[in-house]
Amino acid sequence: MDTREIARRLGSLSIEERVQIINCLLDFSPQSLKVVEIASATQLGAPAVHKQVEALVGAELVSSQTVDGEKAYAVNAKMVRDLFDYMYHQFGPGFQPKTSHADTEAAH
C-alpha cells in the first residue's frame, strides 16, 4: 500500500457512522449484512447506512455482493488488517516522535 492509498483509507474512517458500520461488520464477520440489518444493529437510518457503506466500498474497506436480489456488505478484513498493520509498524503501539536534529543540538 502506498501513502496515497493509506491516506484515502484512513480518511474514509474519519466519519463516525463509517466507524460504527465497520465495527458492526467486524462483529458479524465473515457474514454479509444487508443495509437494513446494518441499520438495525447500529441504530443508524437505512439511507445513512447506504451512503456511508458505499463510501467504505469505494475505499475497499468493505466489499459488496448480491444476495437474494439485494446488496449485502462484509468487511474486507484483509484490507482493514493491512491498514492497521501498516500503521502499527510505522508508529508502533504508542507513537513516540523521534528527537529531531535541532532538539539534539539544543540539548548539548
Protein architecture, described:
Helix 2 crosses helix 4 (46-58) and helix 3 (35-42) packs across helix 4. It contains six helices and three strands. It is 61% helix and 13% strand. The protein starts with a helix and ends with a helix. The model has no long low-confidence stretch (mean pLDDT 88). The longest helix has 15 residues, at 77-91. It has one domain: Arc Repressor Mutant, subunit A (Orthogonal Bundle). The chain has helices at 3-12, 16-28, 35-42, 46-58, 77-91, 101-107, and strands at 33-34, 62-67, 70-75. It is α+β, with helices and mostly antiparallel strands.
Write the SSE topology:
Blueprint: H1 3-12, H2 16-28, E1 33-34, H3 35-42, H4 46-58, E2 62-67, E3 70-75, H5 77-91, H6 101-107
Helix pairs in contact: 2-4, 3-4
Short overview:
The protein has 108 residues and is an alpha+beta fold. The protein has helices at residues 3-12, 16-28, 35-42, 46-58, 77-91, 101-107, and strands at residues 33-34, 62-67, 70-75.
Give the % helix.
55-70%
For the record, what is the CATH homologous superfamily label? Answer: Winged helix-like DNA-binding domain superfamily/Winged helix DNA-binding domain
CA-atom Rg in angstroms: 18 Å
Question: What is the CATH topology?
Answer: Arc Repressor Mutant, subunit A
Strand content: 5-15%
- How many domains make up the 3D coordinates? 1
**In CATH's first tier, which class applies?**
Mainly Alpha
Shape: elongated
Strand line-up of the largest beta sheet = 1-3-2
CATH architecture: Orthogonal Bundle
Our measurement of the CA-to-CA distance between the termini, rounded to an integer number of angstroms, reads: 39 Å
Strand/helix succession:
HHEHHEEHH
Largest β sheet strand count, sense and barrel closure: 3 strands, antiparallel
Q: How many distinct beta strands?
A: 3
